[in-house]
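Practice problem: predict the structure.
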Amino acid sequence: MRTLLKNVRIIAPGQPLNGQKKDILVEDGHITQVAKTLDSTADHLISTKNLHVSPGWMDIFANFWDPGFEYKEDLTTGAQAAAKGGFTDVMVMPNTSPVLESKAQIEYITAKSASLPVTIHPIGSVSKGAEGKSLAEMYEMYRSGALAFSDGVHPVQSSGLLLKALQYIKAFGGILIQIPDDKDISHNGLMHEGLWSTRLGMPGKPAIAEEVLIKRDLDLLRYTGSRIHFTGVSTENSLNLIRQARTEGLSVSCSVTPYHLLLTDESLQQYDSNYKVNPPLREQKDVTALAAAVKDGVVDCFSSYHIPQELDGKQKEFEYAEDGMIGLESAFGVLRKALPQIELDRVIEMLSVNPRRLFGLEVPRIEEGAAANLTLFDPEIEWVFTEADIRSKSRNSPFLGQTLKGKPLGILHKHQFTPA
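Answer:
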């Protein structure tokens, strides 16, 4: 198959062709020609106004619910949602049934997703059953393809278990992903504790629940000399803790969700459960601090935190509704809307370069002879996000009907072009 990209602007931070406009010919999964003008015949000719291309985007934390909860999402629909959002690679959480806690479970994910247009990387569970009681078979999972380890939506609460996990993965250079949430403090909360939780009469999750866990985990990291990544960081003080830890030389990284960069706790005024997420939406000062941390490099990358929920899981009393929203299809549009002051190169670096460097993958090259792992997009177009843009089985998004900025147009990956 031959695909010709005409007059496309290349956004590839750190690569020689970054910022240039070229024609690019892709044949049988490889970039064969890059030139000012190409007149080759092709099976797919892509020539649209303001066409941009970058190394394929990578999401580091999504839930495809397969195996066990395929009525919410499965690997096929999850991959379709990722491709629609411009992602060529996705790391999936272990919160399935059974939990991704063994070599066999990791191999199930890699084998079942081999034929899909998106590469799916499993995250192995830290503990058996993601119950936080005893360590899972992390080394065997690592050898079978697990890129990282996490208990996913059930962050490790036991200091002793986390200490053992950090020591264990250090031996083979592993990395642990943690959602910063101390359940002993936050377990009764429904939203961020603050002015709006008081006005709405809902129990709050205080910011300190996030910050206490980060402090504890950084102390354990300092002791072990291992590696940890915090995802869904949402408060200004959390960023300050991570910033300080880096000045000490600790191997700590972090990511934020697109929605934490745009939405605040004020969004919950209508008790719409699509805004019910964990970590919760915070105050405006936190949103402003997150954007500043993206700009100055404290935040390494983005995570969609794509958590599909079936209709019955969301359409009930707010107290009983499930946490989470879908996020892959809308991620880029939300990011561009939330971060108008951030240079496009920086956004693309956080979408394509930094995630791979953090988790030990090669960054795709845009040059002749390289394997084609590309995302096509228009960074400026404004568009309304509708159900027609959703490929997930679920529809739990608060962005439906909203105008977003910047849209993926398709991906070139695994020897095929998949339009968005």
